[in-house]
Amino acid sequence: MDSIAKFINNPDHHDVLAIVKGFRNGAVYGAKIRFPHALVMSFLFRSGSLKEKLTFVFDATKTHSKNLATFVTIYKTLMYLQRKIVGKEQNGHSFIAGLIGGYFVFGENNNINQQIVLYVFARIMVGLAKLPVARKAMEEPKNTFPIFAAVVWGIVMWLFRHDRDVLQPSLQASMQYLYLDSDHWTTLKNFLWHNK
């Protein structure tokens, strides 16, 4: 055990072992995030037998875990290689590593990848909205979030009104219920208690 501890704590092995640990952390984190989500979604919204539901949960967890582990490995490997080639980390290295890893790991259009990419997209848009304030590039307004929220809602409402087919089906259904179904009723019953 002492020799293993000595090996893994040797600074000469750190960069390569960080890639290995990144793979491990990606696999564990992907499973921790996806398993409860898939379990809840399966039992709340999926039809089918218990075996089919559990198979869905297992497959979704496996895919999320594998994809996250693979992405972390590609990203950390490319960061390591770029540092070795150039001599030190440059500003654009993380973008290049993320771009390549994102293309190869999350480029397949499936439900799991869509959810992950949309989650990350939403978070980076909020981050970009905060960036001018964080960098003190803008004095006014102090908080860019209201502008960001206004633009997001303006765009989604315009898309729903004029090109709704480009929106995800679940968003279309929600917006149909909220904005169009609320225009129609014939009785007090379907005005107050039932939608239609």
TrEMBL record:
GO CC annotations, alphabetized: peroxisomal membrane
Pfam families, A to Z: Tim17 (PF02466)
Superkingdom assignment: Eukaryota
InterPro entries: Pmp4
Protein name: Tim17/Tim22/Tim23/Pmp24 family-domain-containing protein
Species assigned in the record: Glomus cerebriforme
Organism lineage: Eukaryota, Fungi, Fungi incertae sedis, Mucoromycota, Glomeromycotina
